[in-house]
């Protein structure tokens, strides 16, 4: 599915991974953030604020009480789950989600997998539709996240991937996002192979170098579509 109407990679690049000028898996150093410098960061922040306020007013105002009630009635534990993630410039922050796992089994350093026994029935639905991510709009309002950007990872995963994936830390040149180019192209959820993470990094760095407000709108549109239809990689 091409992201037409905005400065996006060629179809082959979107279907596989953006091309780089160095060895496979490597990304160009010193380039992270050039795309964001070309456009106004204030415009991106304004989009984040306006979009997030609309989501809070039109969606979270009734979804939060509804989800909170269902979560509390179907499993013991808090409604919300927070976890330290790596943010811009490598600074840690607490990322918020609706709790989708049994509270006593929610190991903070273990990523969810297909058929994970820790996930509740309600949690499986929340994850499949990405509704569990909605509290992160509060992170956006606080300036810790953007609507679109590289997804933030758990701190221990950041350390692990930084050692084995070339250019991984370039993802932290910008504010992390609720959704991103890599996610709408299928690189979301559990990542078992280093090669898959390397491809995700290529999409993230391409976005950092070439992102635009128009592309953000396209990515959000695709994200909503995938949330409605469901995504095979949702965990």
From TrEMBL:
Q: Which residues form the Bacterial sugar transferase domain?
A: 44-227
InterPro entries on file? Bact_transf
GO molecular function, a single term: phosphotransferase activity, for other substituted phosphate groups
Q: Which residues cross the membrane?
A: 46-71
Domain of life of the organism encoding this protein: Bacteria
Keywords, A to Z? Membrane, Transmembrane, Transmembrane helix
Q: Pfam families from the entry?
A: Bac_transf
Keyword Membrane among record annotations: yes
- For the region Disordered, what residue ranges are annotated? 1-38
Key word Transmembrane helix present? yes
Q: Which family does it belong to?
A: Belongs to the bacterial sugar transferase family.
Protein known as = Bacterial sugar transferase domain-containing protein
Q: Which organism is it from?
A: Hymenobacter coccineus
Starting at the broadest rank, the lineage of the source organism is: Bacteria, Pseudomonadati, Bacteroidota, Cytophagia, Cytophagales
């Amino acid at each position: 599915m091409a992201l037409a109407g905005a400065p996006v990679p060629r179809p082959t690049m979107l279907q596989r991974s953006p091309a780089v000028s160095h060895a496979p898996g490597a990304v160009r150093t010193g380039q992270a953030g050039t795309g964001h410098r070309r456009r106004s960061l204030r415009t991106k922040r304004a989009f984040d604020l306006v979009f997030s306020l609309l989501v809070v007013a039109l969606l979270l105002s009734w979804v939060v009480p509804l989800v909170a009630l269902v979560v509390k009635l179907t499993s013991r534990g808090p409604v919300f789950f927070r976890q330290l993630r790596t943010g811009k410039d490598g600074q840690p922050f607490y990322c918020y989600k609706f709790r989708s796992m049994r509270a006593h089994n929610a190991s903070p350093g273990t990523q969810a997998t297909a058929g994970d026994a820790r996930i509740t029935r309600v949690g499986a639905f929340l994850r499949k539709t990405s509704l569990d991510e909605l509290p992160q709009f509060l992170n956006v309002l606080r300036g810790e996240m953007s609507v679109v950007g590289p997804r933030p990872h758990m701190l221990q995963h950041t350390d692990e991937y930084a050692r084995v994936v070339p250019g991984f830390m370039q993802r932290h040149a910008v504010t992390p996002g609720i959704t991103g180019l890599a996610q709408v192209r299928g690189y979301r959820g559990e990542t078992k192979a280093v090669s898959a993470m390397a491809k995700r990094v290529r999409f993230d760095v391409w976005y950092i170098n070439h992102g635009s407000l128009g592309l953000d709108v396209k990515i959000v549109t695709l994200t909503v579509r995938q949330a409605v239809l469901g995504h095979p990689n949702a965990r």
